[in-house]
Specification:
The chain is about 45% helix and about 20% strand. With about 450 residues, it is of the alpha/beta class. The chain is globular, with a radius of gyration of 23 Å.
Amino acid sequence: MPIATVNPANGETLKTYEAMGEEELERRLQLAEATFRTYRTTSFAERARLLNRAADLLEEDQQEIGRVMTTEMGKPVVQARAEAVKCAKAMRWYAAHAEELLADEEPAERDVKDSGAARVRVRYRPLGPVLAVMPWNFPLWQVVRFAAPALMAGNVGLLKHASNVPQTALYLEDLFHRAGFTEGTFQTLLIGAGAVDEILRDDRVKAATLTGSEPAGRAVASTAGEMIKKTVLELGGSDPYVVMPSADLDRAAKVAVTARVQNNGQSCIAAKRFIVHTDVYDAFAERFVAGMRELKVGDPMEEDTGVGPLATEQGRADLEELVDDARRAGAQVLCGGERPDGPGWYYPPTVLAGITRAMRIHREEAFGPVATLYRAADPDEAVLIANDSPFGLSSNVWTRDDQEVERFARDLEAGAVYVNGMTASHPAFPFGGVKRSGYGRELSGHGIREFCNITTVWQGA
């Protein structure tokens, strides 16, 4: 894929960029290594001052960077501005809490004495330059949820962003520079996917984080494993949305629409598989399909647009293949399901029912505004359907029965269980998945410690 801004609303190529050559990459790697030697010794107060300044600038820039994101990957501009504000919030959260989260820990006195020590401390120290391989769907948020904790921990960042969001990638580097971070603290590498392996093999790069496709995750994990380097992977999901008879159906159906089509349906934590108890299946389906039909599909720059174009032409083709495969295998199309005429990579909100295990969409992630409906006879069958997926990122459950809440929280195979609400990432809560959704955690104290050397300091009498 060329490094270029291609407007998904009309297919027009607006800007193209040359990939960085070996000489420039070497300069940047040298700079990252040299910067880390001094940046790692800065105080939490100084890092927080710089990160708070970056948050201020980002909020000031939200209109401009919102338009850039929408132009590059098609999300409704209202959502793009909200993404910028969310990033500023996360920056401020880590600026306020990093020192506490990474404070030295003192083991229990009995264990200290048992070890023969006078004092023992557990200290969190930064690793060094961390490579971040990031996707296009949340082009600011995916980066900031890595960068804010990594920078506050004393690491420096190297960003390899998706090739279709180069302006956003360059904006991020510029943002941190304008905030006062020295040049080598956070750098954007304009490179293709083929260059990632060599950079990850470089001894100056100490760890990597990737959000993206399963094949990309396998490639990074394989190289990192060979080089014995820490990685955090978030590889997508096919999140279940379980609705039980005690649920508030009106609210559950309304939230279901948002949960499915947020970011034009191109979200790893978007609800994708709607598993509804048979007693309320028909009532929920009627409300949900009506809500999906009511969405305005159109120009993402218009304030009232609910669903814009998919980010890439290939992404739309992949989604169409999943829908067509399901239709051929007997799925019922309750709404949508046909590519509209005209320019741009649009696809309508679509609901499919009668899904079977033989259909690809049952086991593959539908990255776009396509929902699948399942009927479950009881909680046991709901859990079986929900867990019958190679992914395990997040999950949603709608019930007012406390016993059912505990049952689903115990048995759903996912990194999070959201009850009577849709999944949303927050800086204070750990984020990540199990199974083929990846490993490791972002955000919260767990996220900031992922790229730290957890050091035991033992002192004798």
